[in-house]
Amino acid sequence: MTISYIRPIVPGTAPGNTTGVATRAVGQPLPLIAVLVSRPPRLSNILYSVATLDDRGRVADRQMTAALNWTAATRLSIREHDGLLAVTADPHGVFKLTKQGHVRLPADARRAGHLRSGDRVLLAAQLDHQTITVVPPVALDELLLPVLPGGEDA
């Protein structure tokens, strides 16, 4: 019995092409297939991101602060609610962004949110309300474990 293998078909790249994009002989990129995905419309004006909390309590995501038009002069208030941290633009707030544009969570807020250095947090910026909600891993576990396969046993 003879085993035959099917050789994979891999489009080559033109000599001198260092982009890694396969090209036709005339130098035009290969066509891509358009895939239409039906999605329900967004229900809110919320921007999501994931960031790491550093050892000084900084959450470095300048896209969030830029989308909210926050600057180093923007005053912020930070409140804990049901394990989540709400960072809100507040003219009477006692906190500010760092000079680099990062949100810095004070130690009391980190303790309230059960956050440690190196934790990855979900950030949800409500653009209409000038608020970033910081969702700690503990809150994500509570939300997702009941619906993940084998999650209830974890």
UniProtKB/TrEMBL annotation:
Record-linked InterPro entries: SpoVT-AbrB_sf (IPR037914)
SUPFAM superfamilies: AbrB/MazE/MraZ-like (SSF89447)
Protein name, per record: AbrB/MazE/SpoVT family DNA-binding domain-containing protein
